[in-house]
Amino acid sequence: MNEKNIVVLVSGRGTNLQAIIDATQSGYIPGKISLVISDCPDALALIRAQKANIPTLILDFKSFSGKKVYEDELLRVLKKENPSVICLAGYMRIVGKTVISQFYHRILNIHPSLLPAFPGLDAQKQALEYGVKVSGCTVHFVDEGMDTGPIILQAPVLVKETDTVETLSQSILEKEHEIYCQAIKMLLEEKLMIQGRTVRVKGGIK
Asked: Which residues are annotated as a binding site for (6R)-10-formyltetrahydrofolate?
């Protein structure tokens, strides 16, 4: 059994997946992506995985009779893979209790805002409409809430007066790629300690 397996759940373009692929191939992340799972058959992320010779699996949500049946199959697959970390990378579904309870503190998500500000969908649009001067991104453990799990890393991004949803999203995305890979690396190196809502890093963040 490879104790450093990474499973990535995707729904869309897969730019964060690509960053994780690159970081594993370079040796920065001490593990390998053993499987990429998509709930969307035409996700571009699947093509990225296939180009990197990473196994892929499509669990088309529409082909299941409901969320419970879908989650049960997802859990079955994840148990078989037994990953050290599960990364949500543009995965557009809320992970259910059945999966979270089996992989507690092993599921990570990246969100395009400085949580707890602007959770949920369209975070960049929310930030611009609110008029914030600084936005950013957050890597956090996944719990049963909506973007509410303990925060691992955050990176700020200055909001320009000329920013649109598209330009702000792109600026934040560049930071996402950096801190997501950093958080995965720290988790696999067993450097994260969780005390209540606070995540501490052994030796500090470098």
From this structure: 67, 92-95, 109
Question: Environment class of residue 66 by beta-carbon count within 10 Å: exposed (0-12), middle (13-18) or buried (19+)?
Answer: exposed
Candidate list 105, 111, 140, 177, residue with the active-site label: 111
Q: Which of 119, 78, 67, 124 is nearest to 101 (CA)?
A: 78
Beta pairing class for 32-38 and 56-58? parallel
Tokens of 154: 């955050």
Q: What is the largest CA-CA distance in the chain?
A: 51
111 part of the active site: yes
CATH entry 3.40.50.170 includes domain 1-103: yes
**pTM for the model:** 0.94
Where in the chain are the domains?
1-103, 110-206
pLDDT digits (tens, 9 = 90+) for 70-99: 999 999 999 999 999 999 999 999 999 999
Query: For the chain, which ranges sit under pLDDT 70?
Result: 1-3, 206
Q: What is the reported pLDDT for 2?
A: 44
List the binding residues: 14-16, 67, 92-95, 109
Compute, in degrees rounded to 10, the torsion defined by CA atoms 37, 42, 43, 48: 80
Confirm if 8 and 89 have CB atoms less than 8 A apart: yes
From the candidate CATH numbers 3.40.630.30, 3.90.1310.10, 3.40.50.170, 3.90.1200.10, the one assigned to the domain spanning 110-206: 3.40.50.170
- Write the pLDDT tens digit of every residue in 42-60: 999 999 999 999 999 999 9
